[in-house]
Amino acid sequence: MKFRKKVLLICIVASCLPIITLGGMWYYQIQDSLVARENENLSEALNQSILNIDYKLNNYVNIINQIVWNDEIKNGLTAEYNNNFEMYKFYNDTLAPLLVTPPTLQTDIDSITIYTDNQMNPYGQLLRPLTDINQNSWFDSIMDSNQPNLIASSDDETFKLIYKIFDESRTFNNIVQMEINYQQFFASMPSLFEEDYGVVIFDNDKKPVYSYETFSDTNLAGQFPSSKLVEDKDSLESDFVLQQAELPSYGWTVYLYRPTDIISAATLPMRITVVLVIFLSIAIMAVSIYLLAKVVVRPLEKLSKNMEKIEKGDLTVSVFNSGTDEIGNLIKQFGNMVNKLNDMIDQVYKSKIAQQEYEMKALQAQINPHFFYNSLSLINSKAIMAEQEDISQMAQHLSTFYRTTLNKGRSIVEVEKELENVISYINIQQLMHSNSFDVYYELDKSVYHYIMLNLLLQPLVENAINHGIDHKESSDRGKLIIKLKKIENTLEFSVIDNGAGIDPTKLQSILTTKTEGYGVRNVHNRVQLYYGSSYGLTYESEMGHYTKVTLVIPIVHGEEQ
């Protein structure tokens, strides 16, 4: 792909991404905001309805409690009458005033009836034999309950509040039934919104008590599967905005819903405007970027043609540009480079190449590890023949040390080889120090097969011996501890000595101070360059007691390298 096309493509992609991202967020934010606002409206309307229903029910319960806990009613229903006059007196003076007054004052109460199994004469709709209702499915549960019970059905639109009258003597069974006007009780539900909503109420047995819906689109009528509210409510949330509230005192659940399509339709003009603005912005940007790329790339195309001529060996090309921007400066510098290149080829370049070739061959001749190893092998043999065990060990340790140090010119070694290098160095130091210090190894051999940079540990051990153990002032023997363990996805090497320690002021700058030779600063920088800034060396020390340096590197497998 040509540079012009690359510039054009990169600029278009880089510019379109934020536009599309912001436009997309705006596009969906409109929908989400309206859905959130609709949820708030539904929640508010639903809470108001719940408060209204709860107020009515509490009012009904208060009325029926005045009947259930009225001692005159209890005594009258459990008494044994000698004649009809006494019974009529109870009806007229006690029963009728209590049962007739509430329906007269509140139009949503149709009637209040007491059912009893006492052998009393029926008294219109105010007093009926218990056999009139004992065949109902809810009868047994009412008799076992000590609380008011709501019996409602959306099928026949009936609503009853039933309460058993508690009889201490348990001579007779008496039940008060309040017939409530179904439509008046739920009169607030059809007026929650003007249109396009539905409401469903379930009792504590998950049976529908009330349902209502109204939609301007007739195709939506009957499309809400209310049975799924009990079985799988989550499956409805993609098509409907749904709110739920509880009537805690009686175990009823109220659901209020509106189709999401209606909300989407309200935002359609706004979303179309957003899409048009996005496409128009992209089109204007594409044209602008095309013209910009053409202006920017044209001088580079001329420069490219001149470079092709130089590539073919024509160094007489003259490059000119009157611009003062970066590209103009680049072309001028290229022209200067061509002129200097001619001089270099004629005067310096060929002789320098020949000189470097000779120097390289001389350096390669000097670095001959086989000669070095053979020499050490010969020293080892002579030492064995002369029964000089120390010299033999020194030769063997030197051979191992330099073999692992040179590593055939490679900078990557296995962990095991790096440890061999350090152990050889420590053995040499022990011979040089007449075994005046002890060495302890705590090494996890399961990590030996991983790979790492070479020559990371030897400078740390060298410092521990030369600047720590050699300068200790206490009389106890020097001690050097080498540790290796695996921590999650890293390897942690520790070199600990019981030497002189490090001054706190020097400890703060030990990894930033430049020293002669290959010091800890070089190790730290090398690790961070190769593995990243989160790895490297850390120090802790106490003057006169110990110094601990920790090297942390990531685990690297051989196949990864």
Key words describing this protein structure:
single chain, 561 residues, alpha+beta, five-stranded mixed β-sheet, 16 strands, 50% helix, elongated, two-component regulatory system, membrane
For the largest beta-sheet, the strand count, sense and barrel status come to: 5 strands, mixed
* Average of pLDDT: 80
**Secondary structure: number of strands:** 16
> What form results from the Cα inertia axes?
elongated
Low-confidence stretches: 355-367
The radius of gyration computed from the alpha-carbon positions, rounded to a whole number of angstroms, is 49 Å
Helix content: 40-55%
Structural class: alpha+beta
Number of helical runs? 14
Domain Histidine kinase: 457-557
Catalytic activity: ATP + protein L-histidine = ADP + protein N-phospho-L-histidine
Pfam family, one: HAMP
GO molecular function: kinase activity
Question: What is the element layout, followed by pairings?
Answer:
Elements: H1 3-68, H2 71-78, H3 84-105, E1 109-116, E2 127-129, H4 139-143, E3 149-153, E4 158-165, E5 174-180, H5 182-185, E6 197-202, E7 208-214, H6 228-231, E8 240-247, E9 252-259, H7 260-311, H8 326-366, H9 369-385, H10 389-406, E10 412-414, H11 415-432, E11 437-443, E12 451-453, H12 458-468, E13 478-487, E14 490-497, H13 504-508, H14 520-531, E15 536-542, E16 546-554
Parallel strand pairs: 1-2, 11-13
Antiparallel strand pairs: 1-5, 3-4, 4-5, 6-7, 6-9, 8-9, 10-12, 13-14, 14-16, 15-16
Helix pairs in contact: 1-7, 7-8, 9-10, 10-11, 11-12
GO molecular function, one term: kinase activity
EC number: 2.7.13.3
Main location: membrane
